[in-house]
Each structure stands twice: as structure tokens, then as C-alpha cells.
């Protein structure tokens, strides 16, 4: 749960950095997403190479991992590209308020339904209460801010729903893969970002993918930050957590993201808090704390729980953060 909260906090900083790229780099949401994915992919590949060198990992290539998990990798990459880019498009067309409320508000609901139908994960009273509290808190948090709608709210609403569907799909798929231990989770994530980068390139190319050189230092620094913190670090932690935390729990705890964005607005951008926003922030924190307490009390043998079907692992060594090719090596021995 700490990994999910950390990932969501990192995601919450991404919007402010993306705004800097819009202004100083002169590029649009498609290009920002492309550079973010490309930077994150490069860092993940470097991390993978360092792990393999440090642990003298045998064989096992990304190509072989792709052949073994084609469907999972393609779906993850496409889902990542869709929900990131559709959210930015929703902000442009409907404004930040509508985009944030619809995307992040409907995400936990869609994840709850998907995990119940596809993974047979029961929510329970604490989970249901946390989902309601989180969505209500998000509505108050966003509705209490002074934001205007965009030029085409209806189109923006469609983009926001598409983004929420993509997010829910990636979350449920990551949870399902973590429970079934389908190959190397780290390699699958790297390949997913490769697919996502390829999907985003045509959009970035049509939009104008090269940033302006007028503020070159800040542009490069912003791209580097987006690739490192909200992408490489955040998604590594998020997918690692999905192997031991239920999908609904992860989606609600991820509501820390708009909470982080609100704090950044107050501290760095001079936004003012009002009672509605404070109430929304309080409800969001209650939802996160409620699920955190319920998750910590759940027994590992709980059917439909997050540890169902998993081997016992050391608490300081999450599956997605281990040596990337351990599972591939084991599979090769069986073959």
C-alpha cells in the first residue's frame, strides 16, 4: 500500500510539470505523453541492464518475454497510452474539473466492478465505504476549486470516460497477472511501455513532437523528471504492489494523486483552500486510511484476497522489483 501511495503522489506532481512543458516546450498533450513514455522506457531499460549485470542474470531476453506474454504486454501498453493521452485530451476539451472528476472518480468504480467480475475479488463493507468516500471526496475536492469548463465539454466527457476505462483495464490486468505470476512482471512492464511509446508516436508526430529550444534546459529537465518520477519510479512501484494488493484497494489509494495536486496548488501556486475543498481532502484521506486498515488486518489465506495463489515472498523484495529474468530462467529449466 505504501508503494501505491508513493506512486500516486508521484503522479500528482506530473500535471504541474506537464503544464511547464506546454508553456515552455510549446508541445501538446500527445507529445508530452510520448516524451514521458520514451524517457520512462529508457530509464527502465537502464535499470534492467544494471540489475542483470549486478546479479549476473542468465539468458532471457525481452523478445522471449514478449513472445510468451503477447496479449498481456500489448493490452498493457495500449491501455497505458489510451488512459494517459485521453486524460490530457479531456482536460483540453472539458477543463480540469470535469476531466479529473470523471476519470479519477469513475476509475475506482470500474476497477471494483472489473475485479469482482473477472478476478472474483470481494470488496466488503470497508471497500465499499472507501469507494463511496473516495468518489464523494474527489467530487468535493474538484468541485470546490475555481475552474472553468473547456470548449467542448461533451467531447471532453467522452475522453474522460475512455481514460477511466483504460486505467481500470491496466489496473485489473496488472492485478490478474500478479496473482497468476505470468512471467517476469518487470519485463512485462518494460515491454508495455515500449508498446505505449510506439502507439503515442504517430499522435505526437501529427501534433508536433519536437519541443521548442527557447527554454531548452527547463524543457529537458521537465522531460527527465516526467520520465523518472511519475513514470519509471511510479509505475514500477504500482505494478509491484498489484501482485499483493487487491485492485480496488490500489485504485482507491491512488486517489492520493489529486490530493497531492491540490497540495501543490496551495503550496507552490498560491491556490486558496475553502471548506468544501478541505472536506473533500478529508474524505479522500479517510478512504485511504480505511482501506489501509482493512488491508493490514486481512489474512493471507483470505479467498479472493490479494495474496490468493501467490508464493510467500520476503516483504522487502516485491516481485516486480526482483531480478527481472528469475521467472524466465525457471521456465527455461522446466522446458
Please describe what this structure looks like.
The protein has one domain. It has 12 helices and no strands. Helix content is 76%, strand content 0%. With 335 residues, it is mainly α. α4 (70-118) crosses α9. The model is unreliable at 299-335 (pLDDT under 50). The longest helix has 49 residues, at 70-118.
Q: Which short descriptors sum up this protein?
A:
disordered C terminus; 12 helices; single chain; 335 residues
**Shape descriptor:** globular
Treating each run of at least 4 consecutive H or I residues as one helix, how many helices?
12
Mean pLDDT: 76
Low-pLDDT windows of residues = 299-335
The gyration radius over C-alpha positions equals 20 Å
Broad structural category: mainly alpha
Q: What is the number of beta strands?
A: 0
Helix content: over 70%
Quick take:
Helices cover 76% and strands 0% of the residues. The protein has twelve helices and no strands.
Layout of SSEs?
Blueprint: H1 2-25, H2 29-55, H3 62-68, H4 70-118, H5 124-143, H6 153-180, H7 185-207, H8 216-241, H9 247-253, H10 256-267, H11 275-297, H12 326-334
Amino acid at each position: 500500500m505504501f508503494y501505491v501511495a508513493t506512486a500516486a503522489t508521484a503522479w500528482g506532481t506530473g500535471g504541474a510539470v506537464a503544464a511547464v512543458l506546454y508553456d515552455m516546450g510549446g508541445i501538446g498533450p500527445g507529445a508530452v505523453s510520448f516524451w514521458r513514455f520514451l524517457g520512462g522506457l529508457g530509464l527502465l531499460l537502464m535499470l534492467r541492464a544494471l540489475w542483470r549485470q549486478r546479479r549476473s542474470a542468465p539468458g532471457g531476453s525481452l523478445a522471449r518475454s514478449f513472445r510468451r506474454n503477447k496479449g498481456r504486454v500489448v493490452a498493457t501498453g495500449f491501455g497505458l497510452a489510451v488512459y494517459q493521452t485521453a486524460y490530457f485530451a479531456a482536460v483540453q476539451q472539458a477543463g480540469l474539473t470535469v476531466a479529473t472528476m470523471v476519470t479519477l472518480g469513475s476509475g475506482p468504480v470500474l476497477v471494483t466492478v472489473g475485479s469482482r467480475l473477472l478476478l472474483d475479488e470481494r470488496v466488503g463493507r470497508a471497500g465499499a465505504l472507501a469507494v463511496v468516500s473516495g468518489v464523494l471526496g474527489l467530487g468535493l475536492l474538484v468541485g470546490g476549486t475555481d475552474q472553468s469548463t473547456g470548449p467542448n465539454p461533451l467531447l471532453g466527457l467522452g475522453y474522460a470516460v475512455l481514460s477511466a476505462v483504460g486505467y481500470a483495464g491496466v489496473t485489473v490486468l496488472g492485478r490478474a497477472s500478479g496473482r497468476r505470476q505470468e512471467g517476469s512482471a518487470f519485463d512485462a512492464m518494460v515491454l508495455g511501455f515500449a508498446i505505449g511509446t510506439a502507439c503515442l508516436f504517430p499522435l505526437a508526430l501529427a501534433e508536433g513532437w519536437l519541443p521548442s529550444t527557447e527554454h531548452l534546459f527547463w524543457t529537458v529537465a521537465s522531460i527527465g523528471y516526467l520520465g523518472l518520477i511519475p513514470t519509471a519510479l511510479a509505475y514500477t512501484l504500482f505494478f509491484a504492489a498489484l501482485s499483493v494488493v487487491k485492485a480496488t484497494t490500489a485504485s482507491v489509494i491512488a486517489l492520493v494523486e489529486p490530493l497531492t495536486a491540490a497540495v501543490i496548488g496551495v503550496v507552490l501556486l498560491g491556490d486558496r483552500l475553502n471548506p468544501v475543498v478541505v472536506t473533500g481532502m478529508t474524505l479522500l484521506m479517510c478512504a485511504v486510511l480505511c482501506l489501509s486498515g482493512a488491508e493490514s488486518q486481512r489474512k493471507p489465506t483470505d479467498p479472493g484476497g490479494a495474496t490468493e495463489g501467490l508464493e510467500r515472498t520476503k516483504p522487502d523484495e516485491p516481485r516486480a522489483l526482483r531480478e527481472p529474468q528469475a521467472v524466465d530462467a525457471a521456465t527455461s529449466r522446466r522446458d
